[in-house]
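Re: export button greyed out
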Amino acid sequence: MMLSTSSGPRRPAWLGPLIAVVVVYAIFAALTPDTFLRTQNLLTMARQTVVVAICALGMTMVIITGGIDLSAGSLVALTTVVVAWMLQSGAPPAVAVAVALAVAAAVGAVIGTLVGKLRMMPFVVTLGAMTVLRGAAKGLAKEQKIDCETKGLETLLSADVSAPGLWITLALAILVALMLGYTRFGRHVFAVGSNEAAARLCGIDPARVKLLVYTLSSFLFGVAGVMELSTLTVGDPTDSIGLELDVIAAVVIGGAPLAGGDGSVVGAVLGALLMTVIKTGAVHNGMPSWTQEIVTGAIIVLAVAIDRARHGKGRR
Amino acid sequence: MSAAADTPVLELSGIEKSFGAVSVLRGVDLCVRRGEVHALLGENGAGKSTLMRILLGAERADKGSMMLCGRPYAPDGPGDARVAGVVMVPQERTLCPDLTVLENVVLGLEPTAAGFVRRREARAIAERALGLVTEVGRRIPLDVRAKHLGVADQQLVEIARALAQGGAADEHGRKGMAARVLILDEPTSSLGHDDAARLFTRVHALKAAGLSIILVTHFLGDVRAHADRYTVLRDGKVRGEGDPKTTPAERIVTEMLGRELSDSRDVTHVGGYRGTEPIDEAGAEVLLEVDALGGRERPRKASFVLRRGEVLGIAGLVGSGRTELLRLIAGLDDKAHGTVKVHARKGVGLLSEDRGGEGLMLRRSIADNVTLSRRGPFVWKPKEILAEGGRWIQELAVKAAGPWQEVGELSGGNQQKVQIARLLREDYDVLLVDEPTRGIDVASKAQVLSLVRELARKGKGIVLVSSQLDELISTCDTIAILRRGELGPPIPAAEWTEEKLLLEVSS
Ligand SMILES: Nc1ncnc2c1ncn2[C@@H]1O[C@H](COP(=O)(O)OP(=O)(O)OP(=O)(O)O)[C@@H](O)[C@H]1O
Ligand SMILES: [Mg+2]
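Workaround output, generated via the alternate export path:
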């Protein structure tokens, strides 16, 4: 019973988003060639994509296991607050960042335990975590922004090609892509999301896989938080509200079904980039922000629709 | 034979297990020797799969002890069991649908260097493992996602995976990982004749290599041909043991049922259905007209007419497009050409061969599954739904704790009955049944087949797809052969014999 004609071996999931980015970019470039094509503009767009892109790396892993993480935005805000708070109390930047990342990873470990060991619904757990972490950030910051000497952290996303933030993002993306695509652990992440019972039968411990996935993804949200601080230069407990939805959108545009079992890091990063291109392009063309929101939303739905049409052909 | 050959590899004693108030196993002793094929038999719901899951560590026994090679054995999970040398092909599909065939086969034993999968080595393992179960020429592609394979191919991949996990596909045999016990839980229920034959050749080779194989099956013929010993489970206890080659089949059946298989026997074993009321070719109302129907790939061309009161059998190898043909008629897949004209007022119903995947809502209750329907009242009281579920449990003798029980908790054969119940309740005019007896025990098999006859007598039109040729001959009015996607003309069942059918199908 060979039904495999249309799908054959895996097609690269990032092909769609790549085409979308190129097409949308080309349209805006044609509309405003003098400003949109400048290297400066490219750099700005890259910088603006960094936070969503790094979060999307983690979210891709989570979504592949069939989960979701709604606490990304809150954790980013909490990280900015922790770093700022540490800096304010005199810690060197390296220590401040290390502590903040440790906090983020610990949060992920707790979520991962609840989801993995206790088999709770990821949606519910992270919905709770979203509120708890937001509250914790506000408490730590005493409900206001924390001003601090950023002691060089602001250069992470400086306005030139040498900005370390860009290269860190690229390196992380490559690392996560390699991990998912080529390591044993990566295989197990896909297996758990695809058929947990089967994974268990093969001697894989889904609880452990999920613990690791949520810990890693929260760690990545922490890294994104440090990048966020670098642009904000203050710790802001009310920052990044709703960021998780942008991140989820990026992952979905990148070709990951929310049901799990599939997903692509490259696709997710391209998805993040696509949203930035639309935003920036709209600004350059003097389009009001509501049009940009409509276009972004439509593209999310369109991306999934195209994916559906390609997969579901024939079989209903 | 040295004494070592007779020493038990596996000894279970006094295994007890209950789920809530339902006690499934009540003190089971089982002894499996080195290098033997041990058949485990019993009715649907007898507890065979449960016992095997306990062996695999996927389930924990309430009481009792296990010994593996003379040492206490209490696996904490399938991973543990595998390290100890116990691997299993479970009854229900357990492939990861989104992973490729290759990834599925090596899942959990990926060869790595610093965490990275060594692709070439992984491919070699997968190729060797698949080579053990498929013949040259009928290759299963390694890079296709598992969900795009048919059920039979998926089953072969699962067997290959178990063999790979048992170390059978290693070049040298992985250190400390050689399998000692291979459990096959109804491995042939979705395989065609040739695939099943090949599997048994493989089983004999593994046995010769010293592996002990536990075979759970409802096919007594296979047991007699391939097993060295058998054990029968009934009501949670061992009710019979012996050598299947010397024990008469009737005796084994009696041990399984606790009574003799009387009335229904005639239904399954007479050669050719010769009903008292031959369908009146011209008179009976036409329910379904299929003309030059073709799918995207298979079938290529199928035409037939189905009348009221007729059972049309479709015989063909796995992969010949039988399932696809039914799906096209039911409108589940898009057709490429041809027409399907349905004259049946009450519509067309399909019994899927893939009960876990699309046939049932495994997480919902029996009652919910049975009553799932497009029709029905706007408001439906939960009590009535349960009552309706309860009625069907009685009707088809489903072994369950009650209508509220989750279908996923039922034994495989009883799940199949629930799926049949839903179809019957809906009262379609035309029924397309795909492997209706898959995984169900001897008595129920006869029951289901006589049910098919009974429905036809009541004026339904039925298209029956089955890999069991005897089943087709004994149940159908006419049988058509589907070969490489083309459906031949229907020929009266009385003109077929099993041998002729087998020859036609595979030529
Ligand atoms: N998780 C569970 N919860 C409740 N009951 C269960 C559960 N698992 C199995 N059972 C019950 O245990 C009994 C034995 O099931 P089992 O699957 O072992 O039967 P089986 O002998 O393999 O039958 P079949 O031939 O149909 O595959 C059934 O009545 C089933 O309903
Ligand atoms: Mg079973």
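The longest strand of chain A covers residues 146-147. The button fix ships in the next patch.
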